Amino acid sequence: MNSQKVWIVCCFFNFLIACFFGLVMRLMYLFPIYFLNYSFLLHAHSHVAMLGWVYLMVYVLVVHFFIPKEKSQKPIYNRLFWLTEFSVIGMMIAFPIQGYALFSIIFSTMHILLSYIFCCLVWKDCSRGKTLAQKLLFTSMLFMILSTCSVWCLGPAVNALGKQSAFYQIAIQFFLHFQFNGWFILAVLALFLKQFQDKIDAVKCKKFYFALVVSTLLTVSFPIRWFVGYDLLNFINAFGVLVQFLAFIYFYKLLKPQINHFKNSLDKNTKEVYSLALYSLFLKAGIQLLTIFPNLTEVSHQIRYFVIGFIHLTTLGIITGFLFGILLQNKMLSANSLILKTGIKCFILGYIATEVLLFLQGWLFFFGKGTMVYYYQSILIFSLLLVLGLILIIKSLINKKQDQISA
Q1: Greatest pairwise CA separation for the chain in angstroms
Q2: Those residues with Cβ within 8 angstroms of residue 160's Cβ, 6 or more apart along the chain or in another chain
Q3: What are phi and psi for residue 379, nearest 5 degrees?
Q4: pTM (2 decimals)?
Q5: Which of 26, 82, 203, 305 counts the most CB atoms within 10 A of its CB?
Q6: CA angle 187-351-98, nearest 5°?
Q7: Whole-angstrom distance between the N-terminal and C-terminal Cα of the chain?
Q8: Residue 282 CB neighbour total at 10 angstroms
Q9: Among residues 257, 247, 128, 277, which one has the least CA distance to residue 198?
Q10: Tens digits of residue pLDDT in 33-78
């Protein structure tokens, strides 16, 4: 059994655990579970989703697509994967029990240090070139390292100023911004465009790359503005989201010549998840354009439903959509499996339904209409579809593994 296939199964188990934590949190709104701390569970959910699912699946695909085969077989990659998974399991156990405390901080720090080793390995072993995919990959890793700089400031910030200080909050938002918008999104776009690197226009590549990197740097001003009262930050963010929108116009122009290739070479499931990712990506850019308006800037972080909906749009829609698509396109998931097809449809339905409910409830709060009838029951039921979808996908992976062993 190829070690990379075992890695993929492991990543999906991490994703399932993260979704299960999310499901329990939604259950707690209906049936209080007194022996669980909601805040601790939230930390576990977010860390396992980010670092156990997204980070490790990007790790697997970067090793597969960007590292030459003779180098990717080196034992260091397998050892590094399992050490990173050990840190994820540590967070999986420690966060629900103690929240941010000694053991969860130790495992989180371990993950960051291991990510630095991964960056060094990729820079050393990745074949050199000037393709758009390679530029995006290396830049995404620089953003990942940049994001962790703020983590090293958290300890001194807590001791000197406390968790409620503007500096502490800005450090967290800095980390999240460059993790999601820098490291994760640029990495999955690098993996996606790797599939078409010989078929895209070089001039449009440069424009897209430059606009995307500039917009990522500028839009960090948006979360900083929540804690610092400088109007200049609003103008920087407005310019940033306009540049970002321009970047995705260039991205659309890059993809337009590939539409026929998509239609002719991809199966229905792969087209569905890629469509989900692309629509979510353009929806994200559109939503961020709305932050140009000052009244929406203020409520964007005050209404929790908007915050959760936007985070899930990025993680489940864009990042996971692209990861699923790449796995399907390259037969790393069994496209002919009925169990897999059912699992993906359950997952997509659960994602879309929960997003609609979150944003609809957010707008009802914005207009002072209160909570919709049966909101918590409805979002719990549709969240079950996400968990069911992942269980079916994992089952299809395990069945495929058993079929290969028996063969």
Answers
A1: 65
A2: none
A3: -70, -30
A4: 0.93
A5: 305
A6: 75
A7: 11
A8: 16
A9: 257
A10: 888 999 999 999 999 999 999 999 999 999 999 998 888 888 999 9
